[in-house]
Amino acid sequence: MTTAAGPRRILCVGALTMDTIFRMNRLPSRPGKYLPIDAMEIAEGMASSAATSIARLGGDVALWGSLGDDAVGDRALASIAAEGVDCGPVRRVAGVPSGIAAVLVDGDGERIIVPYYHPDLWRDPVLPAGLAEGAFAAVMVDVRWPEAAAMALRAARQAGAFGIFDADVASTEVLEMLAPLASHIVASSPGAALLSGVDLPDVAAGSMARRFSAMVVVTAGERGCFWVERGGSGVRHTAAPMVDAVDTTAAGDVFHGAFALGLIEGLTGEALVRFASSAAAVKCTRFGGPLGAPTRAETEAMLARSYP
Description:
4-stranded mixed sheet, 8-stranded mixed sheet
């Protein structure tokens, strides 16, 4: 695998949407009209938010996503590029609307997300220049663009780069296709349950580690992370930093971005999981999805405070 002496770029592959986030006192429990206490429009999506996180942490990152040729796509692209993400690999599909989502966040930071992607956004991906030639130290893929994710993970493996799979909620077919291609699987608890058939995150982590030749991490929110080193036999646990959550939207994406950056910088095991957990914890204290992604200094301060 690539080390700190090799390429230092990361390619994030997958979702890019223009989202409207509404902050509510509580999430709706029945039909009706509800007035938010705050709102904002922001470009995000799993891969895109991870890319934003990497850029804010000081990493060199590019995004391979897919947008329509509409004004929504123009705003999304400008928003991500303004964060310092190289959007050169992002493609525009003529005559197709860009992805959008509505996000409701309650007073405890929990949320409801309703995304929409036109199916033609995902047709006929073409591998970005440089990936097969080893220009990237790592690729980080989500589940939204499975064909492109598989292409990127295979190219990363061939080039000797890290391949990180964000195993979130998706069809079992997609999860089973992508997991064997990754060197590192970072799964949400629901994603791990789908992939392993087990609802308990620690048991799911062990089951996945036995099936796949990868480091496996299962994120479980305030319960922390359960993880197994590649080739390891025992499940380890890392506690989550204690924070007052304001908005958990994009917390997992920030974790993935920090994880990818820490990995190419040489972090392993407990140190790697703690670094990613610290970045995600800072994000949870702020409203606005990936707008709450922390700087390097903020992440290191949380790291020192949470894991003395």
